[in-house]
Amino acid sequence: MTYVAWILITASLVGMSCGMIGVFLVLRRMAMMADAISHTVLLGIVLAFMITQSLEGVHMLIGAALAGLLTTYLVQWFQSKGVQYDASIGVVFTSLFAIGVILVSTSIGNTHLDIKHTLMGEIAFIPWNTTTLPFTGFEVPVATLILFCVFLLVLGLILAFYKEWKITAFDPALAASLGLPVIGLHYLFMTLVSLTTVASFDAVGAILVVAMLITPAASAYLWTERLSIMLLLSASFGIISSISGYYLAVWLDTSVSGSMAFSTGLVFLVSFIFSPTHGMISRWVRPEKASLTS
């Protein structure tokens, strides 16, 4: 496997995992929660490192998941006390992320975990940190292996809880009346968001994680109203953005993660213009058709 192939595979795994999760975030109108969690997991990563003195291992995923759950809990707690939802996200997001930044700057400054790495990631270095798969002797980048496992987890949980998450996304009150554990499903989903975020963190940084969680799903939403098709489209848009973003970065000699995030915006722009139901062109054409038939 070539150097470029590993980068594209790693980024595509991020695009597929984040793209599918992002669909439920968009449908639940929780896009800003994705932004908040993608930043506040930094606090969980830093605390896990301070306890274990290692940037590798399952403890990083556990720390990030706990930080994501803490973010979700605090936002809902403030909202229950009368604070507006967006204001709750703003307060929790900035406060927890600021604590993480301070700890990175003051307590673990001698490691490669710094603010620039946190925001932009180091996807160009992914192919150099490899591990050997047992029984095969095949070398694979550690980040790619972790992201592949997370992708399988995301896919498995979506298939297992497809109906439940579909109902809670469109009508939480109906889900509660049917006896579904709405709160439990919500926290399970937020845990999955946190795990996916931290798995992508080291490779692509917070900027691309936010872009992949929100933009492909928003683009897919413009093309279809069927959840299954939306999931497939969102994952596909994540792959397209990853591949096109890499070659755009090579052409411009710039940040790979930044170019991939920019590519998600281009995909959304194309969807916003050419979508057959919600696109700008279709909105211009429909009034003309209506006037011709009247």
TrEMBL record:
It is found in: Cell membrane. The chain crosses the membrane at residues 6-27, 34-51, 57-75, 87-108, 142-162, 174-197, 203-223, 230-249, 255-274. InterPro entries: ABC_BtuC-like (IPR037294), ABC_TroCD (IPR001626). One of its GO terms (cellular component) is ATP-binding cassette (ABC) transporter complex. The keyword Cell membrane applies. The keyword Transmembrane applies. One of its GO terms (biological process) is transmembrane transport. It is a multi-pass membrane protein. Belongs to the ABC-3 integral membrane protein family. PANTHER family: ABC-TRANSPORTER METAL-BINDING PROTEIN (PTHR30477), METAL TRANSPORT SYSTEM MEMBRANE PROTEIN CT_070-RELATED (PTHR30477:SF8). This is Metal ABC transporter permease. It comes from Alkalicoccobacillus porphyridii.
